[in-house]
Design a protein that fits this description.
2 domains, alpha/beta, ATP binding, two-stranded antiparallel ribbon, seven-stranded mixed beta sheet, 9 strands, Rossmann fold, Ubiquitin-activating_enz
Length: 492
């Protein structure tokens, strides 16, 4: 084409040719090629060695088909229940009639009653996320007789999965989690329909993956964006759903709670989920399993993944996708199972119509009502209005500001008692009507009542700035809370 240099006359090509012809350039090029080749060989050998060790480990596992001290029905010879032996033998021969099913579900039948068990056996439950939490939930749904279970997960079983997965063993490492679950649970209840979807759940395929009118959906996802999408989709499409919050860094079983998402506390995943959903218009109405265990000295904490460890190539099993940067999440193997069992328990009882009487969550509606009224009174005083101003913030907004934005503590002193909500900055001149400079969430801070009185007289009615009154550190604290709120407001 006219106006373009030919490859032979391009200045860059000429310069490169001259450099390549020099002895030093040739030596440097050869060294670079050698280095790359050696690195590729080392990485290849490392992967081959790892694969060989894994194959050797799998081969050393005793076969489950070895008879050992078993009867012809495949059960321990010490069992003397002739009826159980007879039914077990029929199952092994492929006969799955009603008599066998009801015998296997007899304890559930006694507990839930015939009508409750019937509802359960007609139910269709979807489990999204089949790791440590979801595998235990799916395990008990199938064992309890749910007619159809759909398993959705894109990930594979890794060695690090084995400390918490419900059914996976060494032979399953490297296989899809949904296939691992289906294979194991089909051997327990072959009459249950298990639909395994080895797929990443995302909003673009929501309608397809959640089709066929599920009775309930279980959210066992640990990715915040995907979790928000799933909960929002279920809530706005009237699909019953229950969510699991974070089991990582938790160790106290007595602190597990089943309650509304608006009550979930002491968990970063729960907090982010609540705020993101609230920004999309959902503040409550989603049952949730969470832990109220507080962090403390000596307890596990979330740690960043060191760069040198990631570069070493020794953390592949921690990643959910190849070459995906991860953080190390300490997990006590028992805790995800407890979360999963709580999820399954709620779903089973709800579908069967069995009454649940959970301990109430954090009920502070009276406190929020008083704070709301006090804030309205403050706005009236600042505008010189004898009639109480109607602030454009609801009691739900007040609860959000208290619990989410300021964590229930004064922004000044950190005290958690005798609290008051205050406008942070002075009203602009001439703002006397309700519609003049209406109060927004980011305009409000949480203080103790004593601090609030000083703030009202010195800043809101006086001539001091917030920094002159409280110092730079408190101002930075407020600004940090504002930035965080602006970030969450982005999702509205």
């Amino acid at each position: 084409m006219a106006g373009l240099l030919s490859p032979l006359t391009d200045p860059a090509v000429v310069v490169f040719s001259k450099l390549a012809s020099s002895t030093q350039a040739k030596a440097a090029t050869a060294a670079a090629v050698t280095t790359v080749a050696l690195l590729a060989i080392v990485i290849g050998l490392h992967r081959a060695e790892k694969a060989t060790k894994l194959r050797s480990l799998k081969k050393s596992i005793p076969s489950s088909s070895e008879p050992g001290n078993l009867t012809e029905y495949g059960i321990a010879s010490i069992i003397s229940d002739n009826e159980s032996i007879r039914l077990s033998g029929r199952v092994r021969r492929g006969h799955y009639d009603e008599e066998i099913i009801l015998e296997q579900l007899s304890r559930n039948r006694l507990f839930l009653g015939d009508e409750g068990l019937k509802k359960l056996r007609e139910a269709f439950v979807i489990v999204v996320g089949c790791g440590g939490v979801g595998s235990w939930a799916a395990n008990m749904l199938v064992r309890s007789g749910v007619a159809k279970v759909r398993l959705i997960d894109f990930d594979q079983v890794t060695l690090s999965s084995l400390n918490r997965h419900a059914v996976a063993n060494l032979e399953d490492v490297g296989t899809p989690k949904v296939d691992c679950l289906k294979r194991a649970l089909s051997a327990v209840c072959p009459w249950v329909e298990i639909d395994a979807k080895n797929s990443l759940w995302e909003i673009g395929v929501a309608e397809k993956l959640l089709e066929d009118n599920p009775t309930f959906v279980i959210d066992a996802i640990d990715n915040i964006d995907t979790k928000i999408d799933l909960l929002y989709y279920c809530k706005t499409n009237n699909i019953p759903v229950i969510a699991s919050m974070g089991a990582g860094c938790k160790s106290d079983p007595s602190r597990l709670v089943i309650g509304d998402i608006s009550d979930s506390i002491e968990d970063p995943l729960s907090r982010s989920t609540r705020r993101r959903l609230r920004a999309k218009g959902i503040a409550a109405g989603i049952p949730t399993v969470f832990s109220v265990e507080k962090p403390g000295p000596g307890k596990a904490t979330l740690q960043p993944l060191p760069d040198e460890q990631h570069a070493s190539g020794s953390v592949d099993e921690l990643a959910v996708l190849p070459d995906f940067r991860v953080r190390i999440l300490p997990v006590l193997g028992t805790m995800p199972g407890l979360f999963g069992l709580c999820l399954a328990n709620h779903v089973i009882c709800t579908i069967a119509g069995y009454p649940t009487d959970y301990s109430p969550g954090k009920q502070r509606s009276k406190v929020y009502s008083e704070l709301h009224a006090s804030l309205a009174g403050l706005e009236s005083r600042l505008r010189g209005n004898a009639k109480r101003i109607r602030v454009p913030l609801s009691e739900s907004d007040v609860g959000y500001i208290v619990e989410e934005v300021f964590r229930g503590r004064s922004v000044v002193s950190g005290f958690p008692t005798r609290l008051a909500l205050m406008r942070w900055e002075k009203l602009p001149e001439g703002c006397l009507r309700e519609e003049d400079s209406p109060l927004r969430i980011e305009d409000v801070v949480l203080m103790t009542k004593e601090e609030g009185k000083k703030h009202e007289e010195g800043v809101l009615k006086g001539e001091k700035t917030p920094e002159e009154m409280w110092g730079k550190e408190v101002v930075e604290r407020v600004e940090r809370a504002r930035r965080e709120e602006a970030m969450y407001r982005h999702y509205r």
